[in-house]
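Hello,

Following up on my earlier ticket. Below are the two sequence lines again, exactly as submitted.
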Amino acid sequence: MLDVNIKKEHMKTLEAYRAGLMIKPQLRHLFLELTLRCNEKCLHCGSSCGDVSSEELTAQQYAKFLAEVKGDFGTKDKMLCITGGEPLLRKDFFDIMAAAHELGFRWGMTSNATLIDDSTACELKRVGMGTISVSIDGLEETHDAFRRIHGGWQRAMNGIESLLRVGGFKHVQVTTVVTHQNIGQLDELYKIFNEMEIDSWRIINIEPIGRAKQHAELLLTPEDYRYMFEYIRNKRIAGEPVTYGCSHYLGMEYEREVRDWYYLCTAGTYIASIMENGDITACLDIERRPEFIQGNILTDRFKDVWEKKFEIFRKNLSEENEKCRSCAEKCRCHGDSYHSWDFDNHEPQVCFKDILF
Amino acid sequence: MKKTKKTVMTAALFAAAMNLVPSGAVEAVMSNDDMGAVYAADEPDSEGVIGEVENDFQGVYGPPWMMIPESQWRGDVYEDGVIDAYDMVELRKKLLNGTESDWDAKRADVNGDGEVGISDMVMLQKYLMGQIDGFTEKAETQTTEASSEIKTETVTTVQTVPVPVYGPPSMFD
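Thanks for your patience. The regenerated structure is below:
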């Protein structure tokens, strides 16, 4: 375990920094949900994507919006995070991203990679893609069952190989959502990924949001959580590019050990998102309730919304219930990640107190 | 999977914490109580992995650059806590070879125009010669007027590094 006193000092600094961010947010990551359509129907999908209606913005509307964002915020220190659904299902995907690239935006994407071959990878490079995170959620049979697509695992692996073969991307990452069913496959997955020239392997736990709410059998047990974090830490001790995601306060034992910095939910302070229909919100993983829609880029100027609204995301959730209010860790946790907060019962759905600390 | 300087340094940090490296190296990493000093270089001439770790601790294990006042890092290209001739040498290397990370580029972007170029070297040189007392746009303007013979045109730009979509945000770099 790393030095606790140093960690405490860092977290104290971070707490003061967070307080400043709440008052003066800094837009850094702008998520664009290009579509809700997806060729997979994952059991854990936070957006319940798949065969759903999708009121998508046009390429022209995106170009106009991004030009406005550039004019209002500039492109320096900004990153577009392209997501869906599966973004590559859009026929005008490369038109949208070419426009973003020409405007000078850096961008990265999450994808299931099933639609990526060498030709597509070359096109992605042409329109300036810097980073990509591809989902592999278990060994072949598990992955295909979880994502409800036959042959999905093989196509995704082929897609990753194409990205690596074409090269020239800043970061090719594999993301694995760990469930109670696939947690025993981490070692075998590691052997596979270790033979590939990927830049990192991100391991995250299934979240009790979206479709996963209907699949309690997939959620991790306290023992699963402890195993997963210990697994990640051991890989990092061995110098492997393995990391946990940005979610959840993990306590003094695992904070800073399973990722490169400390927990800080930046939904609404660094992060804003544009839904597929133009609605403006903070983070796409947050439960989709009407009160979280802050505006729409077709009717509102994004800069005004970012500066004059978003109050709902810039507060301490830990003040909303007695358990959190009286918790000794509330100054570091602040009620945990916004996306896993239960807005009906005003309590976190994921809390590692008594599990990790 | 790719091993990078960052992953090696992460492993070294754990090794230091678990007393798995020679005692001298452990002390260099863990003995000081000041956050900056703990993670900064102690002996720049150290060799091997731990030496490399020392030189880069501030950037990798210190707080994100945006949490530190600009006055404490802008121009400190060599990343040793002081601005001196070593930074000029390091900046020249960055101009030739490019920067490795957002944090790297921020420190080298002396004039704060979002690019790393010749104009940054000019401003750093002026600072070292005592012609300006800081790296503000105001200082640059004043000095440009006073020393019109110095060209400040940017000839080289260095792209900052995007981060994975769902990986750590840039502040974690």
